[in-house]
Amino acid sequence: MREESIRVSPEEMEAQRRFALDFRSLPGRPQTYHIVTYGCQMNAHDSEKLAGMLEEMGMTPAPTREEADFVLHNTCCIRDNAERKALGNVTWLKEIKKDRPEMLIGVCGCMVQEPGMAEKILRQYPFVDVAFGTGNIHKLPELLFRAADTRRRVVAVPREQSTLIEGLPIRRESPFQSYVTIMYGCNNFCSYCIVPYVRGRERSRSADDILREVEALQKQGVQEIMLLGQNVNSYGNDVPFSVTFPRLLRRVSETGIPRIRFMTSHPKDLSDELIQELAENKALCRHLHLPVQSGSNPVLAAMNRRYTRESYLEKVEKIRAAAPDIGLTTDIIVAFPGETDRDFEDTLELVKAVGFDSAFTFIYSLRVNTRAAEMPGRIDPAVATERIQRLIALQDEMTQMRFSEMIGKQEEVLVTGASRRSEKQLTGKCSRNISVNFEGSADLIGKIIPVKITAASKTTLKGKALE
Ligand code: SAH
Ligand code: SF4
Ligand code: F3S
Predict the structure, then answer these.
(1) Cys bridge to 157: 118, 136, 170, 212, which one at CB 3.0-4.6 A?
(2) pTM of the predicted model as reported, rounded to 2 decimal places
């Protein structure tokens, strides 16, 4: 079956494990590592797998980049500034390496997978020792072994990313919140976006593999999982006879895991079946991230989003009717090529009409080789800045409105740690994914407890623990 044919073979995974074990006895090999992660949850979770492999290789984490024997940059290239930041930090290490020539520097992640980037690294970044793409992270043991053994540069970036990698060791950041990937890649080709080029086509993991992973996490006492995919609503479309995403959610909740989140939902594929599941399945958190990108139909069409302002608003209405307690959040791009004042006003109106809990807002950033890069009507940067400021100001008002509606309510909060301000102050996330701060003792960390919301600040809620 197709699913079997794209999976990295057990023999290959075993070969990598052998490289990991051999690495342990390599003379003069690096002992400590530090991973610098940029970008989205996908990358954060990949870093947990990279750390898992490095520890299998006998390495231990170093607290800072400067002290580490091996520094790995897991990069993002979604916008120009993300890319510049990553490259700037790689260059910064060059100076440190002058004093510590034995240090090894690695670069991986989405940026490396961009066409031409491997050549650029070879040419312009001679101090980078290891580089690999998102499609072959499982090869880290072999690549690092070669670099440490020969002291020669090793650059390996697969052209095609059609593989599904199962069975990597994972060093998870939190004992009670875990990421679980359900699918890799993206088929949507939104005209502004580089992700389909650097993450390859959609590949869904099998439901059995996902369930096995969740069951193990549930047994370890994990309280909340976040199912990851660029477009979780098309889960299974690439595999014959696969379960649908709502069905997968049902099966995941049957493991008994207390809380389930997922990222990201594409509005065009949000089905009535999913809305019903959100209404009925109480393990699903009361939060839906539904990126709208723009409130203008001509812009949505140019973005290749394949829904309209009206169909988006209709879906929002359906969600609100079926599950009124769900908080919605979104992503918005301003100053897309050709965006007129009228188009932008349509976005503001949509933001007002929906009343999102919060929004990630971005100025359009040109990505080479994407379709939007060729589009006419570039927006003046001063206009773009003014638009994003107006949008942020409006969303801030909406956030205040939503937050103040929650005052007096009782929320279930997963306590994630002490707040930055004081030890007695704890912080956590309510089911709607809003941060809640309250007083309590540290033994509540990792538990889900009832909290009464008493006040709202600009980005967080304040509350009183009821336990
Ligand atoms: N798969 C997710 C989004 C991944 S990227 C989805 O479709 O919703 C996260 C966000 O970055 C996008 O939602 C979009 O708002 C923003 N983004 C992507 N490419 C961009 C670009 N070229 N310029 C500005 N923002 C961009
Ligand atoms: Fe990019 Fe669109 Fe795919 Fe999201 S759905 S990753 S915005 S191409
Ligand atoms: Fe994520 Fe950035 Fe890659 S947003 S998928 S890390 S380009």
Answers:
(1) 118
(2) 0.96
The tens-digit pLDDT sequence of the chain (467 residues) is 344 447 899 999 999 999 999 999 999 999 999 999 999 999 999 999 999 999 999 999 999 999 999 999 999 999 999 999 999 999 999 999 999 999 999 999 999 999 999 999 989 999 999 999 998 999 999 999 999 999 999 999 987 777 889 999 999 999 999 999 999 999 999 999 999 999 999 999 999 999 999 999 999 999 999 999 999 999 999 988 889 999 999 999 999 999 999 999 999 999 999 999 999 999 999 999 999 999 999 999 999 999 999 999 999 999 999 999 999 999 999 999 999 999 999 999 999 999 999 999 999 999 999 999 999 999 999 999 999 999 999 999 999 999 999 999 999 999 999 877 777 899 999 999 999 999 999 999 999 999 999 999 999 999 999 97
3-state secondary structure of 432: coil
Which atom of ligand 1 is nearest to 192's Cα? Answer: 22
Torsion of CA 12, 13, 17, 23, to 10 degrees: 50
If residue 269 lies in a helix (H) or strand (E), which one and from where to where?
Answer: none
Q: How far apart are CA 140 and CA 130, in angstroms?
A: 9
The three-state secondary structure class of 355 is: coil
Which residues on neighbouring strands pair with residue 412, listed in sequence order? 450
Q: How far is the CA of 331 from the centre of ligand 1 (A)?
A: 7
Instruction: Give the full edge-to-edge strand order of the sheet including 327-334.
Output: 287-289, 327-334, 358-363
Distance from C-alpha of 113 to C-alpha of 173, rounded to nearest angstrom: 25
Strands 104-109 and 60-61: unpaired
Candidate of 36, 38, 40, 41 to mutate for ligand 3, largest count of ligand atoms within 8 Å of Cβ: 40
Nearest to 456 by CA among 390, 388, 396: 396
Spell out where 252-311 has E strands: 259-263, 287-289
What dihedral do alpha carbons 389, 390, 395, 398 form, nearest 10°?
Answer: 140
Determine if ligand 3 sits within 6 Å of the CB of residue 228: no
Q: Which amino acid is at 359?
A: A
Token output for 139: 């090869």
Quickly list DSSP for 163-204: -B--------S-SSEEEEE-EE------TT--HHHHH-S-EE
Residues 6+ apart with CB under 8 A from 82: 38, 39, 75, 76
